[in-house]
Amino acid sequence: MADKTNGQPGPKPSSHGAPEALADTGLFSHYQNSHFFCELTNSGGHTDPQVELIRDRLNALPLDDLRSRAKQAEQELYNLGITFTVYSERDAIDRILPFDLVPRILARKEWQHIEAGVKQRVQALNMFLWDIYHDQNVLRDGIIPRDLVVGNANFCPAMIGLDVPGGTYVHINGTDLVRDDAGRFLVLEDNARTPSGVSYVIENRHTTLRVMPDIAAGIDLMPVDEYGMRLQNALAELAPEGVDNPQVVLLSPGIYNSAYFEHVFLAREMGVPLVEGRDLVTENDRVYMRTTAGLRPVHSIYRRLNDDFLDPEAFDPTSMLGVPGLVQAYRKGNITIANAIGTGVADDKAVYAYMPRIIRYYLSEEPILSNVETHICAEPEGLAYTLANLKNLVVKPVGESGGYGLIIGPHATQDELAEFRTKLEADPANYISQPVINLSVSPTLCENGLEPRHVDLRPFAVTGKSTWVLPGGLSRVALRRGSLVVNSSQGGGSKDTWVLAQ
C-alpha cells in the first residue's frame, strides 16, 4: 500500500539544481552543493535579511577560528557529561554526541507549517489510540487492517477500556521529518513511546550561544528553555483528579541506559525526582516513592523504559527495573503514566503508512505534513513491488529504531541485496519499503572546511490538555560524506536548530 497524498505543500526553494558557492572569498568560498536542497542557501536565504546576516557573519569567520570554537564546544559538552551509550562498542561505552557548530536555520513561516502539521498528527495519534483501546471503529470501518493493530507486538490488551486522563496517550512525541529536493517537509516516522534527544536540543543551544555569541547577536530566535516546565505542567494537569499538588517523577532504568544523561537532565529541568523502579512501591493500588521521611505519594510518572519492563506482575516477570502492581494502580485511575502503556502500536512503521488515512478519518482534514511514500511488505502488492525494486529502495524492519536492520538499496552491494532479499522473503510482515529521499543538506564543518551533509529534524511535542511544540527540534546530521543515516548510533551528530521569531 502506498499513499501518495501530498497534503499542504511545504515551502519551495528559491533556487535549485546548479552547483553554487556562496561567496568568492571567506568560509563559504569552496562550499559546493550540486544536487540537494540546502537549508542555508534555499531556506529563506535569499529573502530573509536575518538569514543573510547570519550567513555573512559565518562567512567572515576564518576557518581556523571556527575549528577552535568547535573544539571549545566539544570540550564543554565533554565536561558536562553529555553522552549516549553505544553497547556494540565494549571498549567505548559512553560517547559524546558529535556536535556541528554551524546552525540549521528555519524561517518563521517554515516553522509555522511544521508546528501545525505536528499538532495535527499528535491529535490524530491520540484519537487513534483511544479508539483502538475502546470502540475500535477505525478497525470496523476498514481504515486500517485489524490484524495490523491487534496482532501488533505493541498492542496491549490490558489497556482495553482504560480511560486515560484527557484522552492523552502520547504526552511526548518526536516526529522525524526529512526535506526532499523540492523543499517539502515529509514525515519519516513517529516516535510515540519514549522519544529521546530533547536534551541535546537545549544543550546545543546553550553551547552555540556560549561559543558563537557574535553570530547570534541581535538575531531574534525562538527560545527552547521552557521544555522542562511545559512537560512538568502537562503531567501535573493530567494527574488523577482530586490532587491539589501532584507529585511528578521521572522513572529511569538506571545509569547503564543509553540515554541516562537525558534522564538526569530532564529531571533537573522539570524540577522532579529522578527515580528507578526500586525507589517506588505500590500499596492499596496507589504508588509511593521511598524517601528518608517515609513513603510519599506519586501521581504522574514520566517513564523512560519500555512497556515490558514497567511491571513484572503484568508483563515480563523477570524485570528488575519496574514496579510491581503499577498496572493495577494505573487501571484504578490512581496514577498517570507518560507515555501511556500501549502507545507503541501507533508508531509502528507499518501503522505509519496508514497515518494519512487516519488523519482524514478522525479529523476530516488533509494531512498538513505528508508521509514518505510507503509500501507494506505484509501485503502482496507491497512485497512484489519491493522485491522488484529492491536496489532502488530503503527497506526497514517495522519494530527497529536507531538505523538498525535496514538496507539502502542504492548503497548496497549485490551480495548484501541478495542476503536481504532472503530475509525479506522469509518474513515480509517485518518490513516496509520507501523510496530513497534526497535529504536536504546543511553546511557542516568537515576536514576540508564547510561541506554539505544530510540532515533530518525531530520536533518534540508535549501534550497535556493541549499540545505545545518545542520551537525547532533536534537536527541530526550524517557526518560521513554521502551517508543518509543520521542516527547517533550509526555515526551521526547534531546541530543547533534556530527558528527565527519574525
Automatic annotation (TrEMBL):
<dbReference type="InterPro" id="IPR016450">
    <property type="entry name" value="UCP005522"/>
</dbReference>
<dbReference type="Pfam" id="PF14403">
    <property type="entry name" value="CP_ATPgrasp_2"/>
</dbReference>
<protein>
    <submittedName>
        <fullName>Circularly permuted type 2 ATP-grasp protein</fullName>
    </submittedName>
</protein>
<feature type="domain" description="Circularly permuted ATP-grasp type 2">
    <location>
        <begin position="103"/>
        <end position="478"/>
    </location>
</feature>
<feature type="region of interest" description="Disordered">
    <location>
        <begin position="1"/>
        <end position="21"/>
    </location>
</feature>
<dbReference type="InterPro" id="IPR051680">
    <property type="entry name" value="ATP-dep_Glu-Cys_Ligase-2"/>
</dbReference>
<dbReference type="InterPro" id="IPR025841">
    <property type="entry name" value="CP_ATPgrasp_2"/>
</dbReference>
